[in-house]
# Entry
Amino acid sequence: MIGGMFMYNHKGEVLISRVFRDDIGRNAVDAFRVNVIHARQQVRSPVTNMARTSFFHIKRGNIWFAAVTKQNVNAAMVFEFLMKVSDVMSSYFGKITEDNVKNNFVLIYELLDEILDYGYPQNTDTGILKTFITQQGIKSQIKQQFGDQPLPKTKEEQSQITNQVTGQIGWRREGIKYRRNELFLDVLENVNLLMSPQGQVLSAHVAGRVVIKSYLSGMPECKFGMNDKLMLDRQGKGESSDPTKTKTSIAIDDCTFHQCVKLSKFESERSISFIPPDGEFELMKYRTTKDISLPFRIIPLVREVGRTKMEVKVVVKSNFKPSILGQKIEVRIPTPLNTSGVQVLCMKGKAKYKASENAIVWKIKRMSGMKEAQISAEVELLPGAEKKKWARPPISLNFEVPFAASGLKVRYLKVFEPKLNYSDHDVIKWVRYISRSGLYETRC
# Structure
């Protein structure tokens, strides 16, 4: 497991040093600084092996997080842990900067002692950590000795914390109360596409997340249903002849869930049942590769006129309903390295040639469905002594549209709380769909 964890500033000075296992010595601190932070190479791998020791690192601003181990650990687990540590610190003292780290030495060491035990990750849930690690815990105890404040924690509160950390439902404490019970559900998807110049889809997939903000009283149990193909087929075995069943369902290739989801019910009934943590959390991640509704299509036309001129024409078509508005649309059209000047003409949006990025950047604020926009450009090239063929990088597109490109739909979202006097109808529910571009490219 993880033998030690270190935090450095941009100069390579050690801010936090915590060794959890005896096989990691103090020389590991200097080895990472010399071979990674002060390395001459610009491209650095996130994993570095030196003297049979593995260093995993991420960077947040000017702060380096490094985990060190001599064992053959799961690299994905270590990176997930480092990102969780940075998220926990951000929730406690905001932006991770050198000054904030120095001002919260005691808090950070206390967090590391709770999060890691002999190198094994334990509990990284911010909500649980905040119940028994408070930023002003030491101050409140000092004031208590002088009689300024009562005891910070009663015996009942301490027992609740113990049950929460060691009990079955460790992600939610008891006694939560809200005047208005609300539940926000966001379906956030990243659409990835690689298309040929002729319009043939070479590869496409959607990476999605279901994010929930829960403001519910008590210990409610929620049930979430979506138009998963396996779920609908299981519920309607006798209705397989109905053609609408297959059209409105989607095939999910793989998915992962938050720890609050009851996996046994999902495997047996294909229903997502869970007791939600308080506040915002990620309920599930999923990936689909079939029947993706591509929001936009790019039709490129690049023609080289001699050695010193090139004509570019790009058409963007929206493939969704006219009632939907696409926003934050940005098309990046690459140009050759020997470009001397560009004349751009577009009827919609604003376009500008950025010499530092060797690209024409075309921005459109809004675009409704079933519409198209066009841009034309004349690119002047410097004549070179050696004619090197231009590689023609793909045209990339950024966008945001308010629907799920995978076709995922929330069929139901129910809340059950038997102990308190509120039912499913008393809960205010909000559902939102947003699809954004991932790596959305068209070859030219």
Observations:
- The first helix runs from residue 27 to 37.
- Confidence is low (pLDDT under 50) at residues 136-152, 237-247.
